[in-house]
Design brief:
Bound molecules: NADPH dihydro-nicotinamide-adenine-dinucleotide phosphate
Helix content: 40-55%
Strand content: 15-25%
Distance between the termini: 27 Å
Structural class: alpha/beta
Number of helices: 17
Order of helices and strands: HHHHEEEHEHEHHEHEEEHHEEHEHEHHHH
Number of strands: 13
Strand order of the largest sheet: 1-2-4-3-5
């Protein structure tokens, strides 16, 4: 058995009931075969892949809090500090009822390669809880966040581990967590990113993941002789990533005709009205039915279905495993030219393969959504400098980072004879830097 297959088998055996983690490891290690197979004995002797797939530290803790009725609730908190070879652990906190250790590990593992691709000095980590902020009062959210941070604060710090937002963790939650960290540690430092502008946040961080996604897509289209103007785009999700992806796509002259949330989706042939979407989702925290009620051209459907709408470009921006093999077939049949992931691992492995073998340009999230964490790293730099940069300065750095990521993954794919395979390109380019740092630091 090859070394790669041995390690994939070990991961499945030692981490039962963690299918998302298996999926992420398999995707990465499969594309690293080209590199590993050439030097298998050396990698095996150093147990390099075992060290790569085993997190440096995994924290699981109890999060008790009191709800508005006086009832004590107990959630589980997680922080997986996956790899610090190239910098302090960095990665978001997900608050969603589906959160478990396997999901946090898959996200942390992906984050290692993504952070490496940004070219900035950040290691990989991820955390969160099965707490659901939906339907909770502000006081309940604060009670949860304070309890969560009371435990987490023992393990993080501006030079150790710097968490950020993710699904369910926006500016409100980051604010409550930052306040509690400061109170417990008596230190005002850049321990979290995604902070509000009045207390150390960076301009353009809110927009960064969605904008970055479009900067990369635009560069890729340009390199394939296409421009964004006039393109029809379908987007899933209606959260932070989706909203700013829609906004930037429209600024580039494309027409975005869909968005979705966890209960249904919108088809709006006139193009999504971003301001209305922001009002519904960011201000009222309401369902998409409210968007449809306020806009004549929009039709609301229950369930899922955005991938059935004909498009040139598809941008999955909601959650993992939301673009399945039948969706991929539909996209190909409708003439879709490119799929770029705004979410983390939204496309299943078979759907990815189908898109690639049918000539669709496919960019994995670890490259195309890296603008969020890259801008978080820029927020860390500003906090260390005790300075704030202008929106234009941050946005222009973000553009450069995304353009560089595209060329890095494109070049890495070409170097290994896999031109146009950006999954291989992203995994190899991310891996090379991490491994070189791990080797330099000895067996740790
Ligand atoms: P948000 O919580 O702001 O939005 C998530 C959106 O996806 C919401 O519209 C939500 O619906 C929908 N959604 C969530 N879970 C499901 C589900 N199980 N089925 C269908 N729809 C669902 O999160 P973000 O926009 O921040 O994150 C979206 C994705 O992007 C995640 O995969 C995240 O890891 C990834 N990502 C985020 C970054 C960031 O900077 N925020 C950076 C890089 C990646 P509803 O409104 O009903 O809750």
């Amino acid at each position: 058995m090859s070394y790669v297959d041995e390690v994939i088998a070990q991961v499945i055996e030692k981490n039962p009931s963690q299918p998302e983690f298996h999926q992420a490891v398999k995707e990465v290690l499969d594309s690293l075969r080209l590199v590993i197979d050439q030097n298998e004995d050396a990698y095996r002797k150093d147990a390099l892949l075992e060290r790569l797939v085993n997190p440096e530290r995994q924290l699981i803790f109890r999060v008790p809090w009191v709800d508005d009725k006086g009832q004590v609730q107990v959630n589980t908190g997680y922080r997986v500090q996956f790899n610090s070879a190239i910098g302090p652990y960095k990665g978001g906190l997900r608050l969603h009822p589906s959160v478990n250790l396997g999901i946090i590990k898959f996200l942390g593992f992906e984050q290692v390669f993504k952070n490496s691709l940004t070219g900035l000095p950040i290691g990989g980590g991820k955390g969160g809880s099965d707490f659901d902020p939906k339907g909770k009062s502000d006081r309940e959210v604060m009670a949860f966040c304070q309890s969560f941070m009371t435990e987490l604060s023992k393990y993080i710090g501006a030079d150790t581990d710097v968490p950020a937002g993710d699904i369910g963790t926006g500016a409100r939650e980051i604010g409550y967590m930052f306040g509690q960290y400061k109170r417990l540690q008596n230190r005002y430092e850049g321990v979290l990113t995604g902070k509000g502008l009045s207390y150390g946040g960076s301009l353009a961080r809110t927009e960064a993941t969605g904008y970055g996604l479009l900067y990369l897509v635009q560069e890729m289209m340009k390199c394939h002789g296409e421009e964004m103007t006039g393109k029809t785009v379908v987007v899933s999700g209606a959260g932070n990533v989706a909203i700013y992806a829609i906004q930037k796509a429209q600024q580039m002259g494309a027409k975005v005709v869909t968005c979705s949330d966890s209960t249904g989706w919108i088809y709006d042939p006139e193009g999504i009205d971003v301001e209305l979407l922001q009002e519904v989702k960011e201000v009222k925290r309401a369902r998409l039915t409210e968007y449809a009620a306020a806009r004549e051209s929009a039709v609301y459907h229950e369930g899922r279905g955005v991938w059935a709408i004909p498009c040139d470009i598809a941008l999955p921006c909601a959650t993992q495993n939301e673009l399945l093999i039948d969706d991929a077939k539909q996209l190909v049949a409708n003439g879709c030219k490119a799929v770029a992931e705004g979410a983390n691992m939204p496309t299943t492995l078979d759907a990815t393969e189908y898109l690639q073998t049918n000539g669709v340009l496919f960019v994995p999230g670890k490259a195309s959504n890296a603008g969020g964490v890259a801008t978080s790293a820029l927020e860390m730099t500003q906090n260390s400098e005790r300075l704030s940069w202008s929106f234009e300065e941050v946005d222009s750095k973000l553009q450069n980072i995304m353009i560089n990521i595209y060329h890095n993954i494109d070049n890495a794919a070409k170097k290994y004879g896999k031109e146009g395979n950006y999954v291989v390109g992203a995994n190899i380019a991310g891996f090379e830097k991490v491994v070189s740092a791990m080797n330099a630091q000895g067996i740790v």
